[in-house]
Design brief:
Layout (H helix, E strand, L loop, with lengths): L11 H11 L3 E3 L17 E6 L7 E8 L12 E7 L10 E6 L4 E7 L13 E7 L5 E5 L14 E5 L5 E5 L12 E4 L3 E8 L18 E13 L7 E17 L3 E3 L4 E3 L5 E6 L4 E6 L12 E5 L6 E6 L5 E5 L4 E6 L4 E7 L14 E6 L6 E5 L4 E5 L1
């Protein structure tokens, strides 16, 4: 994704030290207040839970999903984590999903997907697009590469897994090209609505350069809405697909594979879809995402720059504020979407092996079931961390 690459040897000791140190700092966007102004002020402790590398050596954890139900090998409230890199650290080649069990504090392997899955254009490299439905089906995105670069990337697909981690079906279409960002989902049991960003349109090798000497930015990335029917006991099927957002920037990158829109989150009333636009260094909002039948383009800008440093994953906190991880430092930023105000940022990764600290380490973020904290991954050391 959008970051310098992690080292091959996990630095678990440093991760523990960084997590402890990260609990101290809030960076205020304005005047300090005596009373709490947001969710991040209630978070006091960061606990490294587990190393996420499975037996096959896959690394670079991306997506995080908290299981809404117990089904198959997954227990309710388990944390599913997928990997974007293989054991040799090539991006776009990871094939595994692991399952962290909070009750036992152990990890198991949920799924290993064949690298050359023929139904998925270009093969398999698991991205931050992943969800588990109430019906037990797991849907995960693939943004694949043959050699770890965008020069050999394929269009990818969405892969449907049963609760045992076995492939049930794949979803591909002309509207799907490198499903990239964490999904926003409305799950009604026998039907569901998925939103996923697609960052591959137009993007070629990172060796291609524009007038400024950098790989060109293609303003062709989209947000796609998929309406799913979920027949009893059968895999979800796509009933309709609609591009609700378009024109977002995406760019190949030698060090970080691909930069594009990543975070997706719905407002509680489902009237707004928030998108973290990494290239634009902003968070935008699309109106009426559940019902619109045309693209809103990039929507309206909610907030930009300030504490944002290439925004990535995004989640809605219990106070309806947005929590957005930064790609270019180890901070998570809290935003009040009602006003667009960036309230403050909190250091959650102070690893000084990167500059600035935590640069390129933060990807998935998801709230705990109780809403009293959040899980996140530090991809440089392949760890799952709990903040609460």
């Amino acid at each position: 994704m959008n970051y310098p690459k992690r080292k091959n040897v996990p630095r678990a000791t440093r991760a523990l030290m960084a997590a402890a140190a990260s609990a101290v700092a809030l960076v205020a966007a304005g005047t300090a207040y005596a009373d709490p102004q947001g969710f991040l002020e209630t978070v006091h402790k960061h606990t490294t839970l587990i190393n996420t590398v499975p037996d096959n050596g896959d690394q670079n954890p991306y997506a995080l999903v908290v299981a809404p139900v117990s089904a198959g090998t997954v227990k309710k409230d388990d944390v599913l984590i997928d990997n974007f890199n293989n054991s040799t650290n090539l991006q776009g080649t990871g094939t595994t999903i692991v399952d962290y069990h909070p009750d036992t504090k152990q990890m198991s392997l949920f799924a290993v997907i064949p690298r050359n899955l023929k139904e998925c254009p270009g093969g398999v490299g698991l991205s931050t697009a992943m969800t588990m439905l109430k019906s037990g089906w797991v849907i995960v995105g693939s943004t694949p590469s043959n050699d770890g670069t965008t020069g050999t990337k394929g269009a990818g697909c969405l892969i449907v897994l049963d609760p045992q981690g076995k492939i049930a079906s794949t979803i591909s279409s002309p509207n799907i090209n490198d499903p990239w960002g964490n999904m926003a989902v409305v799950d009604n049991g026998n039907s569901a609505t998925l939103f996923v960003s697609n960052a591959g349109f137009g993007v070629g090798p990172a060796t291609a350069v524009g007038p400024d000497g950098e790989p060109p930015v293609f303003k062709q990335a989209t947000v796609l809405r998929l309406e799913l029917d979920i027949p009893d006991g059968k895999p979800p099927v796509v009933k309709s697909e609609t591009v609700v957002g378009s024109g977002f920037g995406a760019q190949a990158d030698k060090g970080v594979f691909l930069i594009g829109p990543t975070g997706l989150a719905l407002s509680p009333d489902q009237k707004l879809l928030y998108i973290s636009d990494a290239i634009g260094n902003r968070v935008n909002a699309i109106e009426d995402p559940m019902t619109r039948d045309t693209s809103a383009g990039v929507g309206r800008q909610l907030t930009a720059d300030g504490l944002l440093h290439r925004p990535l994953a995004m989640v809605v906190a219990p106070n309806n504020h947005l929590l957005v991880t930064n790609a270019l430092n180890g901070q998570v930023v809290e935003i009040d979407p009602a006003t667009g105000k960036q309230i403050y940022a909190r250091w959650i990764d102070t690893d000084k092996a990167q500059s600035p600290p935590g640069n390129g380490d933060l990807f998935g973020i998801v709230m705990t079931p109780a809403g009293d904290g959040f899980y996140y991954v530090q991809d440089d050391v392949n760890t799952l961390v709990l903040a609460k």
